[in-house]
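Recap from last week: sequence in, structure out.
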Amino acid sequence: MTPRERFIAALERRPFLGRVPHFELVFFLTMEAFGKVHPSQRAYHQWDQMTETERRLHRNDMADVYIMTAKRYDHGAIFLHPNPDTEDETKRLIDLVREKTGDEYFLMLHGDATYGIPSGQNMVEQAAWFYEHFDEAKADADRMVDAQLERAERLKQLGGLDGFALCADYCFNDNPFLSPDMFAELVTPYLKRLCQGQRELGFYSIKHTDGNIMPIIDQLVSARPHALHSLDPQGGVDIAEVKRRYGDQVCLIGNVNCGLLTSGTEEEVAESARYCIRHGMPGGGYIFSTSNCAYTGMPLDRYELIWNIWREEAIYTQESAQNCQPASPS
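Predicted structure tokens:
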């Protein structure tokens, strides 16, 4: 199986032999790993002044950084961050990565259109607006989903893309930003429509949110994304509990403690990785990753520590695969 095929099999919760898929939402450690600035961190303020030759060189270098990362660390998927973020440049980047790798990797883009936690600059104002303009907020939520599904339909026509990472964050470490009742009104119906619309277009949806999702996890699962990411242990999310309750309904991605990767001991980091492997693998529907991303400032050797544990231990053998039951209908 190619990395893409294994990644899709995990999203569909189908059994297979070999390594559990692995990826990171973003791998920002490209400077330390390859001597290259991550594409999303490059400032192209003079893009309009560049010659087409300069632009082509930039595109080619960005594509190569994504591919080098996937090859070096055995990622099954590449989350593309087009830069500049226009539809034309998005299409060019997708085509370039496909030209260089064929169908080896699962390719995804940002694709959320639901209300996340507002920025600190307007958090109070946004919360007040939700209460004071409730019907308007719901109408805006509908319009945002409409716009994203129209974009997804255009991308479907262009080809080359496999799915979307839905990256609106809903939760702090202690609780969701919106109460479960408010979330049920302002987010869940629109997340359901978004996931359903993307499914109907043939795309996969990976719902990302940090923090304590447990008060709203029933609602997240009910929206029927193919996967939940990041299962944040710093928000009290335990992959063993989530697997027990929802493992037959949704693929699970993440839960390797990002905080420990910076501040913990090597033993703590290793145990976090092994805990996720131990509880995520049974029954299939599991993709190994950190509980957020490989962020700037994370020691590369710590990332490589969990990567090596994954390489050596997260393997479905014939015996373990017999415990992977076929997925329930999706």
